[in-house]
From TrEMBL:
This is DNA ligase (ATP). SUPFAM superfamilies: DNA ligase/mRNA capping enzyme, catalytic domain, Nucleic acid-binding proteins. Keywords: Ligase. It catalyses: ATP + (deoxyribonucleotide)n-3'-hydroxyl + 5'-phospho-(deoxyribonucleotide)m = (deoxyribonucleotide)n+m + AMP + diphosphate. InterPro entries: Adenylation_LigC-like, ATP-dep_DNA_ligase, DNA_ligase_ATP-dep_C, DNA_ligase_ATP-dep_cent, DNA_ligase_ATP-dep_CS, NA-bd_OB-fold, OBF_LigC-like. Belongs to the ATP-dependent DNA ligase family. Its EC number is 6.5.1.1. It comes from the Bacteria.
Amino acid sequence: MPPLQPMLAKSVAKIPPGMLYEAKWDGFRAIVFRDGDDIELGSRSSKPLTRYFPELVDVFREQLPPRCVLDGEIVITRGGRLDFDALLERIHPADSRVRHLAEVTPASFIAFDLLALGEESLLTTPQRDRRDALTSALQGVRAPVHIAPATYDLETAHAWFEQFEGAGLDGVVAKPPASPYRPGERAMAKIKHERTADCVVAGLRHHKSGPVVGSLLLGLYDPAGRLQHVGVCASFPMRRRQELMTELDPLRMPTAEGHPWQEWATEEAQAASRMPGGPSRWTGTKDLSWVPLRPERVCEVAYDHLQGDRFRHTTQFRRWRPDREPHQCTYAQLEEPADYKLADVLRL
């Protein structure tokens, strides 16, 4: 019965041998509970997702076994790739908007684990046996429900790691074949791409604990010469947060006037360019105010992949680059993965 926390993964640098390997999907993690006509979708944090994906609820009633619990990922595809931005739009308070988007941008579900079937819980069943049970129970499913491709072959996992990024996936997950399902524990391994980029530090946000750096706001120049907000780096020890506040103090501007993001508070500017301070779809009331800095310093950050024109996840600060000029920090330096169609991934 819900709620049930999903089993999680910890980051490792290399793909380990002797595992069951799957692609790492870039969507909303979801635990699907079905008991007859009753369907519930639980998120990674155990909050219900059911109302946001009515089209999947109908499909689950049609295709899934009458009583089951599945672990998987809700995704949306556009142009042969995963589209996380379109997925974010589905989290909307208005039911009419949710229903409209269900028709315009319907979601799919990628199933990668079976946690219960009929009267039987499979939480203590080894991973390899759960995988066999999953493929058997979902043998007749069709789009928009899919069984995640999986392999025990390490060489194939390395090939997937290189190829699947072009379809919007962001790495590989490795699961111990003999392991039971361990809700809420980091019992799997995830291997993600890491690249580096030189970015302009154009602002900061304070840490929730007080007037020290919580995150640095990063910018890149587009072909038109506009500085676009592309993400943040935020993982610093407390002592380093204090040091950064001192280092960056000479760059602080009293107001945003004259800053490339000076119109960050207006909806028109937010629609035309990427700036910090836009509304948070997840929190609504979260304070996204920021401190403008003169865009004169450059840092190198590590990132995994892009989501459109910004970094998909929080980046990792690597070092200051005093040898780089801000105008040199452009999108041209970013590596583009080779194109790969999501349909080809799902056919495996």
